[in-house]
Amino acid sequence: MTVLVTGAAGFIGAHVVRALLGRGQRVIGIDNLNTYYDPALKHARLARLIGPHPDFRFVVGDFADQAALAAAVAGARLGGIVHLGAQAGVRHSIDAPRDYGRSNLVGQLELLELARQQRVAHLVYASSSSVYGDTARLPFNAEDRADHPVSLYAATKKAGELMAESYAHLYRVPMTGLRFFTVYGPWGRPDMALWRFTERVLAGVPLPLYNHGKLKRDFTYIDDITAGILAALDRPPADDGQPKPGGSLSPHALYNLGNDQPVEVMELVERIGAACGLAPLIEPLPMQAGDVTATWADITPARRDLGYAPATPLALGVPRFVEWYRGYSAGGIDESPAVAQHPRP
Predict the structure, then answer these.
(1) What dihedral angle (degrees, nearest 10) is formed by the CA atoms of 83, 11, 97, 288?
(2) Neighbour tally for 145: CB within 10 Å
């Protein structure tokens, strides 16, 4: 089976591509390698995490562009789609809202259309814990209403879920949305807390802690997320008229993928300091616009239906990231395109 992975040069996407190749599947990857953060890191993921592989074809292209997406998959019969590409970042959505409209709304529509046209066996797409907003009800349950996003990023992710629901209802294409909870680990994004904090601790620069560090997050290690994505891909929701996780009667399910172990951001800081062998310097700041005070995933449905079983606590995950970060920072990266780019498989 050939699987299309969008955002293939991204943090989660590159890990998923590697895992799919590792189990013998053919993969087409598409990514526009935009400059939201340094594209050199994306090239490095392709080269070092995925590497040259006869069953992998990578296309530089914008999946929100109908013609570019069609060219990327021309001649291929897709068995599945893992749609991970998106404009990420809560705070960036305040400054650059149009980026989110194109990537997260138009892009979602183009992938839904592709799934419909090819009648794929399953479309798995990335949503986010951000859709829950700043709710007082913890842990977050996919059955709860999520109608009050506090950022445009969250609003686009919720809209993507609603678009998927309509396509599953109209065209009966099996779809699964995965609400990710603060994913971290080696090859992560430079705009995320673990990278930024580690960088500052090693440089002796104060860490900006919003809400004075009194934020709680359900930090989830990348290997656990990758395993959850593949488990979801292998288990498309049935078109049987029965309620699915998230409440749909169509072949559309929604699952939380988190660690079910929320911790205060201050604990994250302490673990980074211990892994670095340095005492972090702290700069307390007020709550940031668009942020939420706490996230916590109810993963009961994912455990039951997908066999999802996160196995990496923060005590293991943070030292692994710090070790990777030290090596990566010391070694530099090859900024040249790493994987042969082909317009079609």
Answers:
(1) 130
(2) 10
| Positions of the chain with pLDDT lower than 50, given as ranges | 333-345
- In 10 A of CB 31, how many CB atoms? 25
215-264 residue pLDDT tens: 888 999 999 999 999 999 999 999 999 999 999 999 999 999 999 888 98
Q: Torsion over CA of 317, 6, 139 and 289, rounded to 10 degrees?
A: 90
Do 28 and 72 contact (CB within 8 A), yes or no? yes
**Location of structure tokens 């053919």:** 26
Residues marked as catalytic: 153
CA triple 187-175-143, angle to 5 deg? 90
Q: Is the previous residue joined to 139 through a cis bond, with omega within 30 degrees of 0?
A: yes
pLDDT at 119: 96
Q: Report residue 136 as tokens.
A: 């007082």
Distances (CA, A) of 242 to 59, 238, 249, 253, 315: 38, 8, 5, 11, 40
**DSSP output for 6-21:** ETTTSHHHHHHHHHHH
In which residue are the tokens 């090819």 written?
118
All structural domains of the chain: 2-181+221-258+297-309 (3.40.50.720)
Torsion of CA 260, 301, 84, 186, to 10 degrees: 30
Q: Tell me: the pLDDT tens digits for 304-340?
A: 999 999 999 999 999 999 999 999 998 754 433 444 3
Q: Give 157-162's long-range contacts (Cβ < 8 A, gap of 24+).
A: 157/86, 157/104, 157/127, 157/128, 157/130, 157/131, 158/127, 158/131, 159/104, 159/105, 159/108, 160/104, 160/105, 160/108, 160/125, 160/127, 161/127, 161/131, 161/246, 161/254
**Helix H segments across the chain?**
11-22, 39-44, 66-73, 92-95, 97-100, 107-118, 152-171, 193-203, 222-233, 265-276, 300-306, 314-331
